[in-house]
Amino acid sequence: MNIIYYHPLFNAQDWLAGIKQRLPQANVREWQPGDDRPADYALAWRPPQEMLANRRQLKGVFALGAGVDAILEQERQHPGTLPAGVPLLRLEDTGMAQQMQEYALSYVLRYFRRFDEYQLLQQQQKWQPLDPHQQDNFTIGILGAGVLGKSVAQKLVEFGFNVRCWSRSPKQIDGVESFAGAEQCTAFLEGTRLLINLLPNTPATAAILNRHLFAHLVPGAYLINIARGAHLVEDDLLQALDQGQIAAATLDVFVNEPLPQAHPFWRHPRVTITPHIAAITLPEQAMDQIAANIRTLEAGQTPAGVVDVQLGY
């Protein structure tokens, strides 16, 4: 069994050793430009096109992250990058769900308890108690009800919040009001006081966070984007903030990363920025899942996390 690996940021030797430890029978190597030797499996994050193109013998391509949008974008721009019929697999959870819970909950509580406003008051040296939000009129809406969206929703329910989810197809989550399909999107947005975006990045969801969507939220709503920068129309958010339709926004992802120094988000008093750290890939958990899925494929069975390339997740 031959496995090729590529990640522009991770320590390759740690991954090569970790996969070898879990799959002793495998020959694992870091892919280098010009390497066209046989491979049964590919582990990659934002791989160059030549790494995967024409590898018809592959049994599986593993994306080293929860999202597969970078690989699918290459396929759209250069058809044939993904060998036809070869399954593409994403990481499912592997510690990301808990990280997303922690991130979302921390910023939900920050806005719910108005700590963001108290921070601004501190900068002005003002001692000014604010009327607290009440849970009965602080409905939280989550765009996306996959593994991560469901996990975040369940954690917020535990804290007593009214939570609703919207997804492409109907989902059932205990204690969560579910909406599905384009025809129910407006109903989902109306009454939502804090919106969390956890949608997959697909052509259908690009630029979904725009002025038309913001207009349906409760005036003075909050936004937390922890999915992809491509979901947000940045100028529309700045306008919604200036008009008061959006009270504040927390952004972990951006169209251009790192965020350019001249970008107005840096200086906006109602925008909080984090550098794409809401949930990072945890190598040990990720390697456990990848190795288990390879064993499943070798046994002729269906692994977890197979991506529908047409849908994009």
What are the salient characteristics of this protein?
Rossmann fold; five-stranded parallel sheet; 2 domains; elongated; alpha/beta; seven-stranded parallel sheet; 313 residues
In short:
Belongs to the D-isomer specific 2-hydroxyacid dehydrogenase family. GhrA subfamily. The chain has helices at residues 12-22, 49-52, 69-77, 96-112, 115-123, 147-158, 185-189, 211-216, 234-243, 283-298, and strands spanning 2-6, 27-30, 41-44, 60-63, 88-89, 140-143, 163-167, 177-180, 194-197, 221-225, 246-251, 271-273.
Number of helices, where a helix is a run of at least 4 consecutive DSSP H or I residues: 10
Strand tally: 12
Q: Overall 3D geometry?
A: elongated
**CATH-wise, what's the superfamily of the largest domain?**
NAD(P)-binding Rossmann-like Domain
Unreliable spans: none
User: In whole angstroms, how far apart are the ends?
Assistant: 27 Å
